[in-house]
Amino acid sequence: MRVVLLGPPGAGKGTQAVKLAEKVGIPQISTGDLFRRNIDKGTELGLEARRYLDAGDLVPSELTNALVDKRLDEPDAAAGFILDGYPRSVDQAEALDRMLDARGIRLDAVLEFRVSEEELFKRLKDRGRADDTEEVIHNRMNVYRDETAPLLEYYDGTVRTVDAVGSPDEVFARALRSLGPEATSLATLAEGQIKQKSQRKSY
Ligand code: ADP
Questions:
Q1: Is the distance from CB of 81 to CB of 73 less than 8 angstroms?
Q2: pLDDT tens for each residue of 44-58
Q3: Which atom of ligand 1 is nearest to the CA of 84?
Q4: Residues 164/123, Cβ–Cβ less than 8 Å
Q5: H-type helices in the chain, by residue range?
Q6: With bands split at pLDDT 50, 70 and 90, how would you rate the model's confidence at 201?
Q7: Backbone angles phi, psi at 97, to 5 degrees
């Protein structure tokens, strides 16, 4: 199953991406996490990406697309993936379409996590990540409105909106429901595999 998660910064996409990926047994691919990992490791990509993250600007699509293209070739992504934070602009969505076409695959669902702007500010200020200062938050919100929100139209007809106000478990239940029966059967399969593994270990 191949899913894209959309939503403004602070909507809880990251949290839900991890939970959904675990439940359904497919990897979560977060471009924000990939960039932060590269920054921590001091790679060339990290050095290049850092100033954009610090300012809350989008890392140039050339770098971002190449990163995702490579990640999609990892064996664990063959069974499906949950993209969190990518695509973030129409040109990235077009690039993703080309990557999918080249592999003869397509997206199954696009989930939009919806939260009011007032609630978002509150959440982000409480979170306290390095790029969560008021000025940077403002910029990330503007970037979302200008660059990312147009994707809702780009994916018109495929987007399923999830009310992202509530406890993480409540939002998770809604997100899983909106992914439909395929996600539920994958979750049952994944659960079976986890059980088998733990049984094997006990011998
Ligand atoms: P949030 O959703 O809270 O903004 P992320 O971890 O998704 O957090 O992203 C953090 C930062 O990483 C962004 O502000 C941006 O600088 C960079 N980034 C993440 N994904 C992309 C992307 N698809 N294209 C360009 N930059 C990105």
A1: no
A2: 999 999 999 999 999
A3: 7
A4: no
A5: 13-24, 31-41, 44-55, 61-72, 90-103, 117-127, 134-143, 150-154, 168-179, 181-201
A6: low
A7: -55, -40
pLDDT number for residue 183: 83
If you search the block for the tokens 């140039």, which residue do you land on? Answer: 60
Confidence tier at 67 by pLDDT (50, 70, 90): very high
Buried b (16+ CB within 10 A) or exposed e, 4-21: bbbbbbbbbbbebbebbb
Terminal Cα-to-Cα distance of the chain (whole angstroms): 33
User: What are the pocket residues of ligand 1 if the criterion is a CB atom closer than 6 Å to any ligand atom?
Assistant: 9, 31-32, 35, 52-53, 56-59, 64, 85-86, 88, 92, 140
Residue 83 C-alpha to ligand 1 middle, in angstroms?
A: 12
Instruction: Sort residue 80 into left (φ over 0), alpha (ψ -120 to 50) or beta.
Output: left
Tens digits of residue pLDDT in 163-180? 999 999 999 999 999 998
Q: How confident is the model at residue 202 (pLDDT cuts 50, 70, 90)?
A: low
